[in-house]
């Protein structure tokens, strides 16, 4: 349960996918380790999102004005409509924290967060559809170079080195994330996490292949729209189809793989939670209470 975060549920890919990864910060404030950081990140999310996307797309003045306006409107909508649901979720998690959990309960939470994420995405879709076709060939070349740089960084983190080195990096990240919720873990609990990672169906090569598919699909679709003189209806249809392919892979093998990863994650998160002490579960409650306080404060702004 506490290991669940947007980075686990959403893997960045094509241009729309990368947009969604940032927007997901607005959907659930559970990716930051410090409670006060949630307020800071949320309040500055439109600016942070804009500069992040501009780094990939090198936006012109017209595109910038549209994007900044839409991001501010998205945040205003999310503050009013979605934050109450996030606050209620955090309250419910606190009540459940002292009790054992089952893997299917973790997966239920996972799918609930995906639903909240989807609501934000639906709200942001018109912006993505409007922005994509306006990208020039030079901007698409800039995007391709930015992706190449990011891909090299991703390979270094997830694919380079020996299997043991890759496992050590994943173990370090997972332990740090868990300790952000439960406090310091025991050696036995760390060994449990290591065993879970060793048995995980996660395969960085499969993930990377899907990332490259999404990037190639996005560039090909956007370049094709620039090459012809399609009607507005055709443009919107192509962009909506690209969005769908970016969020729901047409590769059935990858879809089945992600479900195996999800199932293993849910069981692992439940197993770790059930191995925690009363003091660690109290720490989890306190951490979630801090997040809830932040969310409710953000609702009042």
TrEMBL record:
It comes from Rhodoferax mekongensis. The lineage of its organism: Bacteria, Pseudomonadati, Pseudomonadota, Betaproteobacteria, Burkholderiales. Keywords: Lipoprotein. This is DUF6279 family lipoprotein.
């Amino acid at each position: 349960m506490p290991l669940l975060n947007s980075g686990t549920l959403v893997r960045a890919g094509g241009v729309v996918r990368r947009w969604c990864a940032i927007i997901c910060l607005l959907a659930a404030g559970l990716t930051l380790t410090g409670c006060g950081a949630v307020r800071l990140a949320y309040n500055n999310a439109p600016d942070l999102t804009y500069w992040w996307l501009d780094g990939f797309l090198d936006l012109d003045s017209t595109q910038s004005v549209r994007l900044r306006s839409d991001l501010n409107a998205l945040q205003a909508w999310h503050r009013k409509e979605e934050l109450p649901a996030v606050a209620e979720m955090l309250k419910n998690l606190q009540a459940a924290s002292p009790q054992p959990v089952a893997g299917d309960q973790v997966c239920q939470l996972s799918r609930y967060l995906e639903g909240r994420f989807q609501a934000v995405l639906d709200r942001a879709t018109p912006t993505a559809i409007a922005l994509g076709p306006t990208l020039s060939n030079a901007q698409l070349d800039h995007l391709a170079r930015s992706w190449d740089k990011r891909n090299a960084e991703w390979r270094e983190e997830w694919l380079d080195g020996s299997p043991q080195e890759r496992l050590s990096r994943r173990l370090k990240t997972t332990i740090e994330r868990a300790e952000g919720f439960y406090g310091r873990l025991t050696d036995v609990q760390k060994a449990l996490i290591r065993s879970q990672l060793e048995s995980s169906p996660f395969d960085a090569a499969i993930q990377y292949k899907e990332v490259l598919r999404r990037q190639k699909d996005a560039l090909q679709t956007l370049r094709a729209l620039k090459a012809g003189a399609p009607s507005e209806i055709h443009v919107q249809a192509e962009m909506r189809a690209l969005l769908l392919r970016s969020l729901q892979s047409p590769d059935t093998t990858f879809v089945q793989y992600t479900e195996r990863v999800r199932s293993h994650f849910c069981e692992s998160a439940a197993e770790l939670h059930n191995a925690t002490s009363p003091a660690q579960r109290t720490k989890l409650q306190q951490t979630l209470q801090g997040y809830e306080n932040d969310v409710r404060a953000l609702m009042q702004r």
